[in-house]
Amino acid sequence: MMKTSNETRTENTSVITRKDLRKIFWKSLPFEISWNYVRQDHMGFAYSMTPVIEKLYQTKEERAEALQRHMEFFNITVYFSTLVLGIVTAMEERKAKDPAFDTSSISNVKASLMGPLSGIGDSIFLGTLRIIAAGIGASLCMNGNPFGAVLFLLLYNIPAFLVRYLGMMKGYELGTTLLEKLQKSGLMNKVTNMTGIVGLMTIGSMIATMVTVRMPITFGSGDGVTELQGILDSIMPCLLPVCVTALIYWLLGKNVKTTWLLFGIIAVSIVCAGFGILGV
Amino acid sequence: MIKVLLIFLIACFGYSDYFTGKSLQTRPLVLGPLVGLVMGDLQAGCVIGATVELAMMGAVGVGAALPPEVVSGGILGTAFAIAGHKDAGMAVALGLPIAMLVMLLRNFLFIAIVPLFANRADKYAEQGDIRGVSRMHWFGGIFGMYLPLAVLVAVAYYLGSSVMESVLNAIPQFVQDGLTISAGILPALGFAILLRMILNKKIAAFLAVGFVMTAYLGLPVLGVAIMAVSIVALMAFGGFGEARPAAAGAGEMEVEDDEDF
């Protein structure tokens, strides 16, 4: 497949070769080095996509658009990052061929995959495989045998790297065949809203699970003590996380810079912790 | 002094986990024997490493929650315990508070420092500068997180365990709490940015549906996603058969409307 790839670079066949996919695979290894609290793995995703962007887009404007698209919030159990990268690569390839392709479906697919895949990935790898591997390794190390450490790394990483590599290849194939099918069945133009629905629902769910704001304020004294958080919870669960997200969304709409929001959140958190308005 | 350098190298190896795709050389089980080798007692290193591993089994990054920082805790706990001829219990007792302290520092890096590199990367992305974005990804990781933490472990080893404890006590509690609180709020910023991208009036209600499923019904994210895919599948392929052709038609119309928008 690799050797024919260059000769068959026509309108209808794929521009992305297995070699490119392998490049993305290697670039996805340091996926989490620039992890941060705001957009998490966003730079890792953009960095992993650079071979694709470089190959598919030649003009500065196209590259800027693609880079900015992949600088959005992203977070995933890293071993599954390649699966999403593969699917997104197929979508970018389609977008490069067809300028009418709605790019927001790319963002939607990323948003809707990250939550569920992280849920599965965390429980398979960090919750199960790691515990088994560590248990076996630790039982050797307990007896003073340092090879327990080596065994632990092997037991964990062989499956992890296999999943990562297969995710890259299969994700791309899946993305390509799926997109072709959708186009043939005429569903393609509905896809943006449909992926948007899945994306929005998972974000809604993630706001409830991943954003935490608590007010430990109490009223009254003795037996008559009432917790404000209890009242808020009875109005609506996760009321504060929703309000905070809405407020930030509104501020973003007012063109407030993310840097200011970032430091604003830290400052407000520390001040509120000092006055006991917000709690852990 | 050679030991300090070697401890620094072990820390570099531990944190290199971030470069090799979370391959878990961060764990005390792996670092313990290495520290034992440096401290001249491989056997003790193995046993302590395994004990600290079991004690910190729960400390692993799942989702957006960040656990105690196991590299510093594992290395320093093991090193101080072997140096003081103490047992594995001592390593855990020393290692856990250190891991908590370094977690605070690492969270500070994740909250305040690495995003600065991200903002530079945004500027490069605007200009379509692929190499600039790649550079910020690496710089953010190496200078914003990797080197500060590795150096910190070496410095902490050099200073000794009693100094570490007093440093931990010197940070006001409300600052520690404030950082923890902001770590809970910051994902909201990420979601808000994402929503600015994909939210439109036609489908905005589904945000509320997803929220309600988790907030009120307690469904995990995966459950919500499966539900979402099912809804979409119904809209795409459903139409509820011949029994209610009118309703199916109406459903179709709604979807069609969205595209005109």
Q: How would you portray this structure in words?
A:
The complex is a heterodimer of chains A (280) and B (261). Chain A is mostly helical. Chain A folds into two domains: 2-202, no CATH class; 212-274, no CATH class. Chain A contains eleven helices and two strands. Chain A starts with a helix and ends in a 6-residue tail after the last helix. Chain B has helices spanning 2-15, 28-39, 42-55, 70-83, 88-126, 130-159, 161-170, 173-198, 205-215, 221-237, 245-260. At the A-B interface, helix 3, helix 4, helix 6, helix 7 and helix 8 of A face helix 2, helix 3, helix 5, helix 6 and helix 8 of B.
Outline the secondary-structure elements.
The complex is a heterodimer of chains A (280) and B (261).
Chain A: H1 2-5, H2 18-27, H3 42-56, H4 60-69, H5 81-97, H6 104-142, H7 147-184, H8 191-210, E1 218-219, E2 226-227, H9 228-235, H10 239-253, H11 258-274
Antiparallel strand pairs in A: 1-2
Helix pairs in contact in A: 2-3, 2-7, 3-4, 3-5, 5-6, 5-7, 6-7, 6-8
Chain B: H1 2-15, H2 28-39, H3 42-55, H4 70-83, H5 88-126, H6 130-159, H7 161-170, H8 173-198, H9 205-215, H10 221-237, H11 245-260
Helix pairs in contact in B: 1-2, 1-6, 2-3, 2-4, 3-4, 3-5, 4-5, 4-6, 5-6, 5-7, 5-8
Spatial order of the strands in the main sheet of chain A? 1-2
Mean pLDDT reading of chain A: 86
Q: Span between N and C termini of chain B? A: 69 Å
Order of helices and strands of chain A: HHHHHHHHEEHHH
User: Which two chains form the greatest contact, residue counts included?
Assistant: A-B, 122 and 117 residues
The succession of helices and strands of chain B, N to C, reads HHHHHHHHHHH
